[in-house]
Amino acid sequence: MRYVLGFLAAFAVSALVTPVIARLARRWGAVDIPLAEPRKRHPRPTPLLGGTAIFFSVTAVTLFVLSFTDLLPAPFLSLRQIAALTIGGAILIVGGALDDRHRLSPSRQFVFPALAAAIAVLGGVSIDYVRDPFGGQIDLNLLTVPVFGWMMSLPADPLTFLWLLGMMYTTKFLDGLDGLVVSVSVVAATVMIALALRPDLYQPETALFSAILDGALVGFLIWNFPPARVFLGEGGSTYAGFMIGSLAVAAGSKVATTLLVLGIPIMDVAWVVVRRLFWERRSPAAADRKHLHFRLLDAGLSAREAVLLLTAISAVFGLAGLFLDTAHKALALIVLALVMIGLAAFVIRKYRSTLV
């Protein structure tokens, strides 16, 4: 019952706060102008800063839970970790708001995700181990090194930092279609709830925190599903990846399951970055319409169809991740790669047929 209440509370706050944030964004001038770039196809100026509503909802409901119940903090999700995720999230939202208003350069944008990831690691969010395909686990806390009075665990802490950065930039680059990031993040948060409630893992506090995030995302999705009336903005797109990546770590280093849910976007981002760096010789942060979700539009799908297709793929592989052991998850990742190749082949074929 607590998970349902947490979900519903965050849902209600998010759904009510989002239009208020949208009005404030318009007054402040944080608005995405259509046709300002060739890749943008929305028909009218749309307010940004939507991620602020998600962050506010998660923070408000979490503070209520902390103040009036004994459900948080708990052994698997300490007060220090919750504080780190809140501070890191605030940094992303503030940095994102500055970018939405002033269009920061990619190097300046990078400062905020890097700070958020560093604070999360300092707050105790760490990938302590990973499971091998044979059922064992590999300890990542092999060495402790003092760094300015803080004991850094190697290679766990640097790997966690890179993991969180990767997750943030995955959702950032995925934010090209109305509702896409939020829909996929809803799938990921729902999978985290189910994982945390599994009898062999059972982390009720992680499940509750994931339910709060899930509710905030769904409440925002009402306003963001195509055609969107408000956009996530820079802060919202990175905050989604930050929270999903952090909760995956808190839920017992469920990196493989998260990779299954976000596998298509991750592979798409990796391919786009490699292409930009080595083929096109330009910045990996340069914007274009060569991401998979844009290619699906070029192949003839509507924005809503593309969002539903990519969300359905995430849901299928996320569901598989709940029931597969580590060895079979590795096989599922291979299948996911084949699905990605199949999608790419479909897009290329459809696109070429439109040129004939």
UniProtKB/TrEMBL annotation:
Keywords: Cell membrane, Membrane, Transferase, Transmembrane, Transmembrane helix
Keyword set includes Membrane: yes
Cited CDD domains: GT_WecA_like
A Pfam entry, by short name: Glycos_transf_4
Subcellular compartments: Cell membrane
Record's keyword annotation contains Protein biosynthesis: no
GO cellular component: plasma membrane
GO biological process: cell wall macromolecule biosynthetic process; cell wall organization; lipopolysaccharide biosynthetic process
Protein name: Undecaprenyl-phosphate alpha-N-acetylglucosaminyl 1-phosphate transferase
Species this protein is from: Candidatus Uhrbacteria bacterium RIFCSPHIGHO2_02_FULL_57_19
